[in-house]
Amino acid sequence: MPQEFIQSFPAAPLQIRIGVDGSLSDLKLTTCQVKIPDCFRMEMDGTVKNVLDSLSREGVINLNSDFYKMDFLSSLTGGVVIPSGMNIHGKAGMKGNDLFTETTLSQKEGKVQLNAEYNLLKEAFIRQIYKSVS
Which of 32, 45, 48, 101 places its Cα 20 to 30 Å from the Cα of 18? Predict the structure, then answer.
Protein backbone atom coordinates (compact mmCIF):
# COMPACT_ATOMS: atom_id res chain seq x y z
CA MET A 1 0.00 0.00 0.00
CA PRO A 2 1.23 3.50 -0.76
CA GLN A 3 2.42 5.37 2.33
CA GLU A 4 0.14 8.30 1.45
CA PHE A 5 -2.89 5.98 1.56
CA ILE A 6 -1.86 4.53 4.93
CA GLN A 7 -1.43 8.01 6.40
CA SER A 8 -4.72 9.34 5.03
CA PHE A 9 -6.83 6.27 5.97
CA PRO A 10 -9.50 7.30 8.50
CA ALA A 11 -8.92 6.58 12.18
CA ALA A 12 -12.37 4.97 12.36
CA PRO A 13 -12.47 1.19 11.81
CA LEU A 14 -13.65 -0.45 8.59
CA GLN A 15 -16.80 -2.33 9.60
CA ILE A 16 -18.00 -5.35 7.61
CA ARG A 17 -21.13 -7.34 8.42
CA ILE A 18 -22.31 -10.23 6.23
CA GLY A 19 -25.22 -12.64 6.60
CA VAL A 20 -25.66 -15.55 4.17
CA ASP A 21 -28.27 -18.31 4.38
CA GLY A 22 -29.21 -21.28 2.23
CA SER A 23 -27.35 -23.57 -0.12
CA LEU A 24 -25.74 -23.38 -3.54
CA SER A 25 -29.15 -24.05 -5.08
CA ASP A 26 -30.83 -21.19 -3.19
CA LEU A 27 -28.43 -18.69 -1.63
CA LYS A 28 -29.68 -15.62 0.23
CA LEU A 29 -27.50 -12.65 1.06
CA THR A 30 -29.59 -11.48 4.00
CA THR A 31 -27.33 -8.55 4.73
CA CYS A 32 -24.00 -7.18 3.64
CA GLN A 33 -22.93 -3.91 5.16
CA VAL A 34 -19.56 -2.25 4.67
CA LYS A 35 -18.84 1.13 6.20
CA ILE A 36 -16.39 3.53 7.69
CA PRO A 37 -18.39 5.96 9.83
CA ASP A 38 -18.36 9.51 8.42
CA CYS A 39 -16.80 8.24 5.13
CA PHE A 40 -19.19 5.82 3.41
CA ARG A 41 -21.90 3.22 3.88
CA MET A 42 -22.76 0.38 1.48
CA GLU A 43 -25.58 -2.11 2.00
CA MET A 44 -26.48 -5.10 -0.17
CA ASP A 45 -28.97 -7.95 -0.07
CA GLY A 46 -30.38 -10.41 -2.57
CA THR A 47 -30.68 -13.97 -3.77
CA VAL A 48 -28.90 -16.27 -6.20
CA LYS A 49 -30.28 -19.63 -7.33
CA ASN A 50 -28.28 -22.50 -8.85
CA VAL A 51 -24.95 -20.75 -8.24
CA LEU A 52 -22.80 -23.39 -9.97
CA ASP A 53 -25.03 -24.01 -13.02
CA SER A 54 -24.08 -21.56 -15.79
CA LEU A 55 -27.32 -22.22 -17.71
CA SER A 56 -29.94 -21.98 -14.98
CA ARG A 57 -28.30 -19.67 -12.44
CA GLU A 58 -30.13 -16.48 -11.69
CA GLY A 59 -30.16 -13.85 -9.03
CA VAL A 60 -30.45 -10.22 -8.06
CA ILE A 61 -28.36 -8.18 -5.63
CA ASN A 62 -29.69 -4.81 -4.40
CA LEU A 63 -27.22 -2.05 -3.58
CA ASN A 64 -27.64 1.14 -1.55
CA SER A 65 -24.58 3.31 -0.95
CA ASP A 66 -23.96 6.74 0.47
CA PHE A 67 -20.57 8.47 0.25
CA TYR A 68 -19.51 11.31 2.54
CA LYS A 69 -15.74 11.74 2.70
CA MET A 70 -13.73 9.59 0.29
CA ASP A 71 -10.58 11.74 -0.08
CA PHE A 72 -8.45 8.99 1.52
CA LEU A 73 -8.69 6.95 -1.73
CA SER A 74 -7.07 9.58 -3.96
CA SER A 75 -3.58 8.05 -3.69
CA LEU A 76 -4.97 4.76 -5.03
CA THR A 77 -7.07 6.25 -7.82
CA GLY A 78 -4.73 8.82 -9.31
CA GLY A 79 -6.60 11.68 -7.64
CA VAL A 80 -10.10 10.59 -8.71
CA VAL A 81 -12.52 10.44 -5.77
CA ILE A 82 -16.22 9.89 -5.27
CA PRO A 83 -17.73 13.32 -4.49
CA SER A 84 -19.15 13.98 -1.06
CA GLY A 85 -22.91 13.47 -1.01
CA MET A 86 -22.90 10.92 -3.86
CA ASN A 87 -25.44 8.10 -3.63
CA ILE A 88 -25.49 4.90 -5.65
CA HIS A 89 -28.68 2.85 -5.57
CA GLY A 90 -29.72 0.00 -7.80
CA LYS A 91 -29.55 -3.66 -8.52
CA ALA A 92 -27.35 -6.08 -10.41
CA GLY A 93 -28.35 -9.50 -11.54
CA MET A 94 -27.73 -12.50 -13.68
CA LYS A 95 -29.74 -15.02 -15.60
CA GLY A 96 -27.63 -17.76 -17.12
CA ASN A 97 -24.78 -16.00 -18.90
CA ASP A 98 -26.51 -12.62 -19.06
CA LEU A 99 -25.61 -9.96 -16.50
CA PHE A 100 -27.52 -6.73 -15.98
CA THR A 101 -27.53 -3.61 -13.86
CA GLU A 102 -30.07 -0.88 -13.22
CA THR A 103 -28.28 1.78 -11.20
CA THR A 104 -28.83 5.42 -10.28
CA LEU A 105 -26.03 7.75 -9.22
CA SER A 106 -27.21 10.95 -7.60
CA GLN A 107 -25.80 13.96 -5.84
CA LYS A 108 -28.07 16.76 -4.69
CA GLU A 109 -30.35 17.52 -7.67
CA GLY A 110 -28.19 15.77 -10.29
CA LYS A 111 -28.93 12.20 -11.30
CA VAL A 112 -27.54 9.69 -13.81
CA GLN A 113 -29.19 6.38 -14.58
CA LEU A 114 -27.28 3.43 -16.02
CA ASN A 115 -29.05 0.40 -17.42
CA ALA A 116 -26.79 -2.17 -19.05
CA GLU A 117 -26.70 -5.83 -20.04
CA TYR A 118 -23.66 -7.98 -20.77
CA ASN A 119 -23.36 -11.53 -22.10
CA LEU A 120 -20.47 -13.55 -20.65
CA LEU A 121 -20.24 -15.99 -23.58
CA LYS A 122 -20.28 -13.35 -26.31
CA GLU A 123 -18.21 -10.95 -24.19
CA ALA A 124 -20.43 -8.19 -25.50
CA PHE A 125 -22.75 -5.53 -24.19
CA ILE A 126 -26.30 -6.19 -25.25
CA ARG A 127 -27.45 -2.65 -24.50
CA GLN A 128 -26.42 0.35 -22.52
CA ILE A 129 -28.63 3.26 -21.59
CA TYR A 130 -27.29 6.32 -19.80
CA LYS A 131 -29.80 8.95 -18.85
CA SER A 132 -29.00 12.21 -17.14
CA VAL A 133 -31.85 13.65 -15.15
CA SER A 134 -31.67 17.02 -13.40
Answer: 101
- CA 44 vs CA 31, 41, 80, 122: distances in Å: 6, 10, 24, 28
The tens digit of pLDDT for each residue in 35-61 reads 999 999 999 999 999 999 989 999 999
Cβ-based neighbour number of residue 21 at 10 Å: 10
Q: How far apart are CA 38 and CA 47, in angstroms?
A: 29
Centre a 10 Å sphere on the Cβ of residue 67 and count the other Cβ atoms it contains: 18
> Which residues are within 8 A (CB) of 78 and not within 5 positions of it... i.e. 6 or more apart?
none
DSSP structure string for 11-34? SSPPEEEEEEEEETTEEEEEEEEE
* Closest to 63 measured CA to CA, from 93, 25, 95: 93
- The 10s digit of each residue's pLDDT in 106-124 is 998 889 898 999 999 988 8
